[in-house]
Fold this sequence. Notes:
The chain is 25% helix and 24% strand. By secondary structure, it is of the alpha/beta class. It has a seven-stranded mixed beta sheet. The radius of gyration is 23 Å and the shape is elongated.
Amino acid sequence: MSAPRLVFLGTPSVACPFLEALVAGGFEVAGVIAQPDRPVGRGMKVCCPPVKDSALAHKLPVLQPASGAELREAVAALKPDLGVVVAYGRLIKKEVLSLPPLGFINLHFSLLPKYRGAAPVQWALINGEKETGVTVFRLDEGMDTGPVAASVATPVGPDEDAPALFARLTELGRGLLVSAVRDIAAGRASFTPQSGEPSHAPKIRPSLSFLSPAMSASSAFDLFRGLACGPRARFVTPAGTAVQVLKASLRPLPPGAPAGAPGTVGPVEPGGGFFVRFTGGSLFLEKLKPEGRGPVGAADFLNGARLGPGDALIMPPPAGREGPHK
Length: 326
């Protein structure tokens, strides 16, 4: 097959660069399938998925099926040779997977079988992984369980957060996906069953975003890095205020700083940030967002909350709201 006719399935902004790569690579994209437009934000304004905007910019047909039956009809109508999926947001059933003669492939942001699921980048960071990568695999009816066509690994930087890691993996994945499509078209692709211990990366619930004084400093920082795309790591003050952490770093307390209990305020840099103690180390907080307010400098937040060195700052999460612990 010289040039397969493709259907691209994707929804959020992270999928857009992959659609762009396929178009730039000269492939025939018969159509793009995205999730339906949905209301978002406090005003519940109906917005279209970013992939839809990208497809329309290239004058590509866009379909937004709302059910499995509609998805089958949409794929059948486009008559693709190969389906390409990046962050579509819905499991695709067997009756749809069997429609293209070459099946469906998926670009996943992990080294499968590790971190199968909706949030592989976030969980890799939350768990302090030192290496991750991207994988192209053939879709089957399982959750990211199909055989692998290609993968590439990359180290995770010690201070790298979710937006930065997504950006790097996207650059790695664009070339990997284009190469995989070309190999499939040329009949030289080989698919190998996944091997190794699987792990899972379920959707991040806001209840998992809370920092706790019981955490180690590294665990707290990893949670902050992993949730930098949202819903953001947060903590609850003694006054009961939930506070999002917008900017933080893993830093030891300055020499001579007094000891204190985990969750208490350490030295303060006036006009800047402050240290907060955790087990085995501390975080330096620079920008925060209290519930119902805009972003504020961390030291200014302390002044407004009438808190200072030695005071308790981070309380145990409310019942049923627990951040991951390591």
